[in-house]
Structure formats: C-alpha cells, structure tokens
Amino acid sequence: MADAALVLTGSPSLAPLLARGALLSPFKRPAPDAEFPRTRLVLPGLRVDLARLAAYERVCGFPTGEDALPLTYPHVLGFPLAMRLMSGRDFPLPLLGLVHTSITVTRHRGMPATGGYELAVRVGGLAPHRRGTQATVVTEVREGGDVVWESSSTYLARHRTRRPAEALGAPGAPGALEEEARKPLPVVAEWRLAEDVGRRYGAASGDRNPIHLHPLTARLFGFPRAIAHGMWTLARCLAAHGTPDSCHVRAAFRAPVLLPGTVTYAAEDGRFELRGGDERVHVAGDVYPA
Q1: Tens digits of per-residue pLDDT, 217-243?
Q2: Full-model pTM
Q3: DSSP letter string, 156-185
Q4: For residues 149 and 120, what is the distance between their CA atoms, to the nearest angstrom?
Q5: What is the DSSP letter of 109?
Q6: Cα separation values, 254 from 70, 114, 281, Å
Q7: CB under 8 Å to 269, separation ≥6 — which residues?
Q8: What does the angle CA 148 – CA 12 – CA 107 come to, to the nearest 5 degrees?
Q9: Are 227 and 212 in contact (CB under 8 A)?
Q10: Which of 152, 204, 212, 252 could serve as 56's disulfide partner, Cβ 3.0–4.6 Å?
Q11: Is the N-terminal amide bond of 94 cis, ω within 30° of 0?
C-alpha cells in the first residue's frame, strides 16, 4: 500500500525523466529486499489529446475516429507517472536496461475518448527473479470515482543473484503467463514491420527509449537493430484480436522484435501470439471477459 498520495498538476515530461534515470542508473544497487518509493502519484482532471490518440491508433492498427479509448491507451497515459517513479533516486532498479516483462490489464467498462479521468500510479513492490530483481508498477484510471481501468506491469533489472536456486522467478507474479507446453496457435496474418515503427510509436506514445529508435542507438545496448516497443506489439495484437468493453488481458513479452522484420500473428479463441520466422514467440497472451 502506498504511504502517501502526491497530486500532480500535469503529466510529467518524459525526456528529462529518461535523462535523469540514465544518469542515476550506474549508481543503483538492485536487490529484491531494497527500499522502494511508496508515494502514489495522482493526476486528476485528465483529458485525452485526440490528435495524439489518432496517431497512436494509426501506428497500432486500431480504428480511428471512434469515441472510445483502445484498451492499451491508458498505459500510455500513465507511463509518464511510472517513469517519474522509476527514474527517481529512491527507486532501486537502474532505468537503463530495465525490461518490461509482462502486463495484466482489466477494463471494467468502455472508456470514451472525450471523458475526464483521474490517473494513479504506484510501485507495488519488488520480487526476486532468477535473472535479477523484478518491480511491479500498478496503474489505475478512475472516472467519476469508479475504477474503470487498471493494470499491473512487471519490469526486470538483470543482475547476478546470490541464490539463483531460490530466485525462481515469479511463477505467481502479476501478469505472468505459465510457460506450459501448448500447441502452436493457428496463423491469422503475416505482418512486415517497417524500420521506422519504433520512431512512429515513440512519437505517438512519448516513449523515445533509444533502443527503439535507430540501429546505432540500439547497438549501444547490445541489440543488432532497433527493436519494437513491447507495448506496441501488444497493442497491434489486440487491434487484430478485438476486445470487449469489459475484459481482462494478460501478456508476457518473451523476446524482442527486431526492426525491420516479419512476424506472424496467431490466435484462437481467447489466446494470441506474435511469432518470428523461426517460430520464436515474441509475445503471448490471452483475452477473456472480466
């Protein structure tokens, strides 16, 4: 539970937060028992920028011009608040190299794009992972005092663990999908992804992490080419899959998608996957009524 609420007067600018997080990253000492910020950031009176929303819908494949927020868009609205928490001195995990590993989303009812909302974001806690330490970030969106949308995202900081046999890696963590043996889902479509997808999504979402923007900046972090945003891959899948007004979504980000590239979208009943040409699963998830 958060200790205190800090009410903001506007959404934080992402560029300075990314710069602050990058500068502080070398000094962080991640550990599952470290202290973490307990403040709950609240942004009341939020109105959606419809032009920016339309750009997001176009790059992700959602229909444009409808008075309804795509299921993944509240994550974009809450991301600057999450970045403010994760880039701070009191957040123990380094922002550079932090990997978004999973997300769960519950939407309780349809959300008009022209509505007024209140955002709240907090760090839910830290947990050991077989590859390091995992943080959970919880986001809530309220309309008229009622929670209409909520999510739980997990972010992994990779580092050596002292007791790898005991840090088994979050089998019951929020949003974790069991990696049980399942037959491959039937292919629905093949998508050729352009080299500029990361830049277009970054412009629409505000998430301009350098690993997504250009091959040169991606190579600085060990990637051969720019990689797609995990939340873009999920949004693209959900745009193809469709979601009811009241629903629950779980997704695990398992491998980066290199840009440019070709992927296959596969789905059956409530399950979906995004796979590479080598049948490697990049994203796996499911959708079901809330």
Answers
A1: 889 878 899 999 999 999 999 999 999
A2: 0.90
A3: EEE---S-TTT----TTSTT-------PPP
A4: 11
A5: S
A6: 23, 34, 7
A7: none
A8: 15
A9: yes
A10: 204
A11: no
